[in-house]
UniProtKB/TrEMBL annotation:
Signal peptide: none annotated. Keywords: Coiled coil, DNA-binding, Transcription, Transcription regulation. This is FadR family transcriptional regulator. CDD domains: WHTH_GntR. Residues 10-80 form the HTH gntR-type domain. Residues 222-249 form a coiled coil. It comes from Halomonas marinisediminis. It comes from the Bacteria. It holds the Pfam family GntR.
Length: 268
């Protein structure tokens, strides 16, 4: 009979850090507030200084506090950015063989919800920022570096919308999916070869969306974003297929076992 793996027992420092997080939420503490000092925490949890410091280090790594030394120092609450959480989730999914279809299966739904949620909430500054983003895209020239920059700018357009979203969970999920696409662009070099049709479609949808946002037309915003996501998925699938074909040709004609030092390990 196969042995059932037992669940790892949490360390005391992990239990303390979890309890501190619950306390922070219960007390409604905000950025800049201080946690009790080390001595108080040692007395409260009846534990050694090393355990308290390990618990605080966990919170620091998670981005919840900043540890300062010297007079007036201690553990100070810090509002974490989304980057550490996004990076950990992307690391978790790294070995799951994700492709553009998996990302767009969610993105087709969530980007429409996001776009509708910001109708009437975008300031003139927000709208100008979106327009500036489109203009920057159109200033990109043919060539690998500019094509890569253009793909990133196109994703940033959607991040600008996410920053105006009133639903923090929806905003996080959309920005996380944009990060996933950014990773795919880098790993698969999805900015090569140049696809002018894709570029023009993105520019057109983005400009029409800005116009619809200005008019606060929810139905038009929803329709445009739905069409935009479907078109982007089709183009992403075509890019991945083209890159896969090129990879096979390159490996067949040019592979000499030296493409990567890690790959050479398989031939030792």
């Amino acid at each position: 009979m196969a042995k059932i793996p037992s669940k790892r027992r949490q360390k005391l420092a992990e239990l303390i850090s979890d309890d501190i997080k619950r306390w922070i939420a219960t007390e409604g503490m905000t950025e800049g507030d201080r946690l009790p000092n080390e001595k108080s925490l040692m007395e409260l949890y009846d534990c050694a200084k090393g355990t308290v410091r390990e618990a605080l280090k966990i919170l620091e790594v998670e981005g919840l506090i900043t540890l300062k030394t010297g007079p007036g120092g201690g553990a100070i609450l810090h509002t974490p950015s989304m980057e550490p959480a996004s990076r950990m989730l992307r690391n978790f999914l790294h070995f799951r063989s994700l492709d553009g279809h998996h990302v767009y299966q969610l993105r087709r739904l969530l980007e429409v919800e996001l776009a509708v949620s910001v109708v009437g909430r975008l300031s003139e500054q927000d709208l100008e920022g979106l327009t500036a983003n489109i203009d920057a895209c159109q200033c990109c020239h043919p060539g690998e570096e500019d094509q890569r920059r253009q793909r990133f700018l196109e994703l940033e357009f959607h991040n600008l919308l996410a920053r105006a979203c009133p639903n923090p969970l929806l905003a996080f999920m959309c920005r996380f999916l944009n990060d996933m696409l950014r990773d795919l662009v880098v790993v698969k070099k999805a900015y090569i070869p140049e696809r002018q049709q894709f570029d023009k479609a993105n520019h057109r949808y983005h400009r029409e969306l800005v116009k619809a946002f200005r008019e606060e037309d929810r139905e038009l915003v929803a329709r445009l974003m739905d069409e935009h996501m479907r078109d982007a998925e089709d183009n992403m699938s075509a890019l991945e297929a083209e890159m896969a074909d090129q990879m096979l040709v390159t490996q067949h004609n040019h592979y000499d076992g030296t493409a990567s030092p890690l790959r050479r390990l398989n031939h030792l």
